[in-house]
Amino acid sequence: MVTLQTKYKEKLTAQGWRADAEQFAAVAELQRLYSQLCYSKSQQKISGWFSRFFTSFRMTDEIKGVYIYGGVGRGKSMLMDLFFDHVPGTIKKRRVHFHEFMIETHDWLHAHRGSEMADLLPAYAQHVSGNLHLLCFDEFHVTDVADAMILGRLFTALIDQGVIVVATSNWAPDDLYQGGLQRELFLPFIVLLKKRLAIIHLDSDTDYRQISDPDQDVYYFYPLGQMTEQKVRFLFDELVGGVQAQTKNLKIKGRMMKVEHAGTAARFTFSQLCEQPLGAEDYIKIAKEFDTVFVENTPVLKEEKRNEAKRFILLIDCLYEAKCRVIISAAENIHNLYDGSDHAFEFDRTISRLMEMQSSTYHAQRGST
Predict the structure, then answer these.
(1) Percent of the chain clearing pLDDT 90 (strictly above)
(2) CA-to-CA distance for 87 and 135, rounded, in angstroms?
C-alpha cells in the first residue's frame, strides 16, 4: 500500500525541496488519521443496527481530526491537500476555504430561520454530515463575532454527527479570536478543538513560497505612474488576445458592481475592491467569475488604512484559494506595501502568497483547477 509518507517524499523530489522534520511529523499524524478513516469505512460493511452504532462510536469517540498551524509558507495547505487527495473517493470528503464554509453556513441558517438556533445547528450538522464524513478547512481564522458565537455548538454538532475535521491555520488554537467581542463565549470552542483534533505546529525556518523560481512571470508593477499604467494596459491586452473590453454589472447578494472585463479577465481599482464595504462573499464571487484579476492603483497601506488593508488581505486569500492569476499595480514593492502594525502578522501571509502567485508552479495549479 502506498502511504502518505511515500507521497510526501515523491512531492519533495518533484519540487526539489529538502526534507523537513516538522512536516514529516505532520505527515505521520495525517497518515494515522487516514488509516483510521479507512478502517472505519471498512466497518460499515457490518450489517444491521450494530454497524451503525459501531461506526458512529468509532467516528466520534476515537478518531481525532488534525489541526495544523504555523507561519506563512510552511507547507500547511500542501500537506492537507496531499492528505485530501490520498483519501479514497469512497469516503465522502470536501476541502473548502473556511470563509466559504461559514458563508454557506449563515446562508443555510438564514434560509431556515424561524426555529431556535439550538435546534437549527444540529439540523444543519445533519445536513452537512449527510454529504460528507471528512471536512478539510484551509485558512481557519475567526474574526467575525457571528462566526465566533456559533462555532462551539456547530462543531460539537458536526462531531456528534460523525464529521472528521482537518484544518490549517496561521494561529495556534489558544490565539484564535484574540481580542474579539465576547471572547469568553468562544473559549469552549477552543477546548473542544484541542480535545477533538490533534494539534500540530509547523515552525520551520523556511518559507517555501518564497523559494526562487527561474520561470517566474512578473505580475506585480510599481511604482504608480505612466510607465506602470502602460505596462498594465499592455499586459491586459496581451492576456485577452486583443478582445475589446466591455463593462458589465456583477450582481452579488442584491448589490451591483461595475466591472471592466474581456472574457474571463477583469480590471478593478484598489478603491473598488478594498475601499468599499465588501467581504469574502464578494471576493469569492469575483474569483468564480474571472480567472484573471487586475488590482490597480494600490496605495501604501498605512495605519489609517487598516480596514482597507484587512480587505486586501481577504481579497488575496480568496483569489489565491481559487488559483486566480492576479496582476497588481502598486505604489511600492511587495515588501513595503504595508506600513502599519495592526495587521502586520496577517500581511506577512499576503506577501508570501503574492510571491508564490508569481511562480510557474502556481500557474500550473491554476490551470489544473
Answers:
(1) 43
(2) 12
pLDDT of 283 > 90? The answer is yes
Q: H or E segment at 158?
A: helix 145-160
Are residues 166 and 276 both part of a single domain?
Answer: no
- Grid coordinates given for 67: 489541526
**pLDDT band, very low/low/confident/very high, at 139 (cuts 50, 70, 90):** confident
- What pLDDT, in 10s, does the model give residues 335-369? 899 998 888 888 988 998 888 887 766 766 655 54
- Whether residue 44 is found in the same domain as residue 115: yes
Q: Rounded to an integer, what distance in angstroms lies between the CA atom of residue 161 and that of residue 155?
A: 10
d(CA 355, CA 347): 12
Q: Is 82's pLDDT higher than 90? A: yes
Task: Supply the pLDDT for residue 262.
Answer: 93
272 and 189 inside one domain: no
pTM of the full structure: 0.66
4 φ/ψ angles, rounded to the nearest 5 degrees = -65, -30
For residue 57, the domain's CATH number is: 3.40.50.300
Bond prior to 173 in cis (omega within 30° of 0): no
Yes or no: say if 266 and 260 are a contact pair by the CB < 8 Å rule.
yes
Residue 207 resides in a domain: no
**pLDDT at res. 219:** 86
> Is the Cα torsion angle 355, 357, 359, 362 positive or negative in sign?
positive
Q: What end-to-end distance do the CA atoms of the chain give, in Å?
A: 28
pLDDT given at position 324: 93
Does 96 share its domain with 125? yes
Q: How many domains does the chain have?
A: 2
User: Quick one: 133 and 222 in the same domain?
Assistant: no
Burial class (CB in 10 A: 0-12, 13-18, 19+), 181: exposed
Give the residue numbers spanning the domain of 77.
4-202
DSSP state of 20: -
Residues 138 and 55 in one domain: yes
Residue 271 lies in a domain: yes
Rg value, the chain, Cα: 22
Within-domain flag for 57: yes
Q: What is the pLDDT of residues 102-113, one digit of tens each?
A: 989 999 998 888
